[in-house]
Amino acid sequence: MYILDAGVYVADARPQEPHHAEAHALLAWVVTEGQDVYLPVIALAEVAAAISRGTGQPALAMRWIAAIQRIPGIQLTPIDETLARLAADLAAHYRIRGCDAVYVALARQRKATLVTLDRQQRDRVPPDVTARTPAEELALIKGGQG
Q: What is the pTM for the complete model shown?
């Protein structure tokens, strides 16, 4: 079970991104293996904004949002008061940026692995949350299969 930060989807969408290959490979594996991925609803706006700003193509951004929503196993998760309070607590205690804290809170709540390209987010998760880069997660997956 995974929480994939918006940056992973953006890296997959943009071949010129430094971590495109790893993000693409991880998302392909998630689809092939039918993994459950919880995605806070705010991710849709984050991904759309990043793709549109980076390309100047709002229609492309919206196509990517539609594609994300069609990924089997994606569970769009509303930010209810419980999740918001947990995110606020984590943001305050671990000095995590606002939206980043929502992903961390969701990972804690679901007992899922957070996959992110954001070093600060990854470095500041509490001890009971596992956070890895796409490359780190792929290495573990391949290590488990070989």
A: 0.94
